[in-house]
Amino acid sequence: MSTLTDTERAERLNALTKLLDLLRPSVQADGGDLLLRSADVETGVVEVQLAGACTSCAISSDTLQGGVERILKDRLTWVTEVIGGLDDSVDPEVSAGLGTGGYVPRYRNL
Question: How many domains does the chain have?
Fold first, then answer.
C-alpha cells in the first residue's frame, strides 16, 4: 500500500532527476555517463549505471560508492539504497578510448 501521494512521488522523482543531472557533467568530462536505470521512490531504492569510459575505469566503484551513493543519500533523505552497475556491453578497449581518466585494464590477453 502506497503511503505517498502522486504529487509526493513526482516531487521525489523530479528531485532525483535534477540531482543526477548535476552529477552527470563530472562523469561526462572523463568520457563516461551516469544513467538512471530505475527508482522506487516508495522504498528509496535507486539503480544507476555508469557507461562509456567508466566501464573500463579502475575507480568506477569508488565513483559509485564514494560519489554517487553518498551524494544521493546525503541530499535526498528518502534514498535508502543505491544499486550501481556498469554497462558491460561496451568493449573494454573501446571504453578506454573514450575517456581522459586513468585507464587500468581489468584483464590481460597474454
Answer: 1
CA 62 to CA 10: how far, in whole Å?
30
Confidence of residue 106 (pLDDT cuts 50, 70, 90): very low
**Average model confidence (pLDDT) for the chain?**
81
Are 5 and 26 in contact, with CB atoms under 8 Å apart?
A: no
Domain annotation covers residue 67: yes
Which grid cell sits at 55?
566501464
Nearest Cα neighbor of 86 from 56, 45, 44 is 56
Q: In terms of DSSP H, where are the helices of 1-110?
A: 6-28, 60-62, 70-75, 92-98
| Among candidate residues 110, 20, 19, 105, the one with its CA nearest the CA of residue 55 | 105
Beta strands at 45-52 and 81-86: parallel, antiparallel or unpaired: parallel
Residue pair 97/103 in contact (Cβ under 8 Å)? The answer is no
pLDDT band at 10 (very low <50, low <70, confident <90, very high): very high
Q: Residue 38 is part of which domain span?
A: 6-92
> Would residue 99 count as lying in a domain?
no
